[in-house]
Structures are given as structure tokens and as C-alpha cells.
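Repro:
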Amino acid sequence: MTTTSVTPRVTNVGPGTGPFAFTFEAPAGEILVTHIDASDVESVLVLDTDYSVAYNADLVTGSVTLVVALGASESVRVEGKPVFQQGVDLSNGPYDPEDVETGFDVLARQAKYLKATFEDAIANPSVDAAAAAASAAAAAASAATATGIVDTSTTSIAIGTGSKAFTITAGMQFVVGMPLRMASDAAPTVDYMEGLVTSYTTTTLTINVIGAYGSGTHTDWTIYPTGMASTLVAAIAALPGNGMITQLTATTTANRSLAAGAGLLVTNPAGVAGNPTVTPDWATAAQIRNGTASKIMTAALLESAAALPAVLVDGANIAVDWDTFFTDSVTLAGNRTLDNPTNIVPGTWRQITVIQDATGSRTLSFGTYYEFRDGAGAPTLSTAAASEDSFVLFARSATRIWVFEGLDWS
């Protein structure tokens, strides 16, 4: 299924029971219907009790019909609210394209829902900022609970910096060095602490608290990952001159410098002729494919890196450099051998499409690293001119390549 860019939310004004159509993707279980009365008081409606849903043939778009008709000053909001948990499990084997597409469809609907929610919050500044922040934090916590990185604790702890030990659930995914926020449920945007995990043993989580906000001793903690924005902003504001950025005074114009770091490029680092300029050090498609360190990557760059690059060079022996592609192709102009790959990264995948030339009936032998299912050896290629065979390669180790073939795509 191709996920559209339609905003997953529509509001319909009364009177009437509908049907009220929705054109965004919202399969069964992902519909949220809210009644809004004349005083703008909202209440969530219950499926089969307050409303019914009729789906179109695609099973993701359709319409909602209410049991009780809306008044002239009332409205109903229909929105797609995806479940925030992993619904598709991809094992270490050949991936079913339908499973992969289903997983991406769910991810796309989650992203659209979050985008619409944040845009609505920005467009309606009259909403109580504290309440909105608390709601967003609760939603984020709910989404992350299933992944083992959000938990609660009833340990009695006073807000303050330094080492703090919380009793939590065993088997969580907290690791040493992970930045966490510990917020009191009574006032999560006022009374909270931020710090780094120093140890996690069975049910004891120890955190070195760097930033403490609010006051009091609390027993209603929710613990979840954070970017530590509050703590970092406060720390930067308190810096007088730390060797990376030298503080300027009214009489100092040349003593300013900035050093480049991972993922950052610096123009005019000494700052004598002007302030230093920092720009992201974006990764190229080639750098993404070969895993170059200290580069910044975006979704668009990743998509570009995954696109088909220059084809493999045909020859009696076809060289394969694992660092240069994710998916590639080669047209055989004779009987060939696919050499063992270089720069293999164990645990990663590649894909090669082998194409017959206008003559056809070309053969392909494989290097000693390649292994085929059931020990049957390399398959026989399709023989027709211009026919295509696909080979998915999984690096089991630096010298073992598992091959999954899909023959005759012509």
C-alpha cells in the first residue's frame, strides 16, 4: 500500500449523523472519533456504541456514521491514531516484501499522526502550554513503554544533583551512559531531574543527576530517555570560556575561536576576520554506503544512498566492493565469475541484479565466499536475452556470504 500525504484528521460540523468520509489511511483499530459540543468540550466516542465505520474496498479509507445526530453547533473530529508499537517482526532471513511494506506503512502513519499533532499544537497557541507539554510527554512515554525504555519508580528521592538510585522493573533496556529524565507525575514539567545512567543491576538503576529542577521529595517517578535539553542549555549559559569558544568582551574582537567536531565543519575557526561559522558535515551517498565516521545523515541522504549507483563493471571476473553500493546490477556480455567481495561488513545486506545481454545464455560462477541454501550450489541463470535474476547477499561473516536468489524477473 502506498501511504498518501493526506493529513490524518478531518472535522465535520453538524447537524446530522453523517456519513462523514475520511480519505487518510486508518485501518481497523486506528480510528479515533471525538465529539465536540457547542462549548468546545471534547469527548471520545466508542465504536459500535456511538458510531460505526464503513470501509472502502482498500480497507483503509471510508466513512463514519454517528448513532446520535450532531446539533447545529456541534462537530465531530475523525482522525487516524496508529498504535505506537512494533507490529512487524523482521527475522534474520530473507524479508517478505509484504512484511517490509506493512512495517513502513505503519511507520508512515505514525509519522503523519505526530506531524499533525505538533502542527495543531503550534497553530493553536491558546492551548495551555504546560498541559500540552504534559500530554506530549505522556504520549511519548506510552509509545516507548513497549520498547523497554520507559518505566516508573516509587522510590522516595529528593530532587537534587549527584548519584540517585531508583528501584525499577527488571529487564529494561537502560544502559550505562544513557541520558534519562526522572519526572514526578504530579508536576512532570516542573519537578524533574536529568542525568546519565552509571549502572543498572537487576532492579536498581543508578543515575548521576546533572540537572535538577523544581523541589521536594517524590515517590511518583516516570523514567524515560531525554535529550537533556534543559540541562545542556543551562550548562552552556553558565560557560565563561571553555577553550572551545572564548568569551568576548567589549574590547576583545580577535580572541575568539571554534574547533570542528564530529559532524561539524568550521569556516574561519580562528575568528580573526569575523566570527567562526559552523555548518553540518553532511554525508555523501558514497560515505553512507561505506560507513564513513563523523558524518551527519538525513532521511533524504539515506534514500539517495540506497538508490541504484553506477553498475558493476562487467568482465571475466566481476569485482564486488561491499563499501560502494546497497543495490547494484551488471549486464553479462560473456560467461563470468563474481569475485569474493572486498570490505565486507558482517551482519549487513546487499543486492545485485544480473542481466543477460542481447545474446543470452551467459553463465555466472561465484567466488568461494558465496554459500547457497541446502548446499545445492549456485543456481543456473535465466537464459533468455535481457532476462534478470536477483541475488540478495547477507554477510554472515567476513568470509561467508549467504545468497538468496530470485530468478527470471523478465
